[in-house]
Write a structure and sequence with these properties.
By secondary structure, the protein is mainly alpha-helical. The chain has one domain (5-128). It has helices at residues 8-12, 21-33, 44-51, 81-90, 107-110, 114-128; strands at 68-73, 94-100. It has a two-stranded parallel ribbon. The chain is globular, with a radius of gyration of 17 Å. 9% of the residues are buried. This is Lysosomal acid lipase. InterPro entries: AB_hydrolase_fold (IPR029058).
Length: 130
Amino acid sequence: MFSFQSRIAMYIGHIPAGTSVQNILHWRQVLYSKQLQAYDYGCKEKNMEKYNQTTPPIYKIEELKMPIAVWSGGHDLFADPKDIAALLGRITNLVYHKHFPEWQHLDFIWGLDAAKRMYVKIIELMKKYP
């Protein structure tokens, strides 16, 4: 039983709130292309209009200069451990990483202990790296 279990009925009643169809399609594109890239509009003209190129740009993770913190969960079906490892290897300014082996994707938002285990650290890091 995951830590958000006592809140699940209330949250399920509000689905599909929290994301958009385009966001879901974007993550599907990332999954199948195996590249962390911007949304592909499916036609060269629309991509050219949005990105000034015919294909979606690849995110240049290595070029990010700001401090980056990452949290990961051992049961997160949307963030595979291999993908997390690959992402962490590309971040050049990683200031913090915390892995919660027992957490799944929704625990980061709805977990009963998320405030204590994660949110306090987020605020601490925001103060440290304004």
